[in-house]
Amino acid sequence: VRPILYRIIYLSFFFSSRRRHTRLRRDWSSDVCSSDLHVELAQYYLSKGNKTKALKHYQFAYENQNENFDVIKNILLLQIDLMKYTKVVSLCQETLETYPAQPILYLVNGVALNHLNNPKEAINTLETGIDYVIDNIKMEADFFKQLSIAYKLDNNITKSQAFSKKAEQLLKKY
Prior knowledge:
By secondary structure, the protein is mostly helical. It has 10 helices and no strands. It is elongated.
């Protein structure tokens, strides 16, 4: 934690003197290594419980290097925690074009769609995504929980209860 803290202190001092370092600041912000630094800052803020600042730095990292799946995953999970469901759906649709076999994208998208009260689309997304889950009982149970919620929102109580039971059975194995 200390090396990260020293970098943060250095960077805050560095950026505080605007006139002398305008050119260096511009070069730093456009540098590829700034993506790694933003990831470190995001992890630091996340460890301190500041999800809003962590999300902001993950988004800066994403702007510089949008192929990093871990950064995308962290953005999506933080957006779910911060209840930014519309942004989750938008980023999921964009990311699924590049990573169509990542089940976490379908799960997070389904969670967001459930919160946006769009159960039919959530059901479609979750049923597609569950096919990509391999050897991950916890994730499979999460899919079943979200399917249960989606069917309940769609007033299909029978299917909702069936998926809820499937999730409970899987969690007993876990």
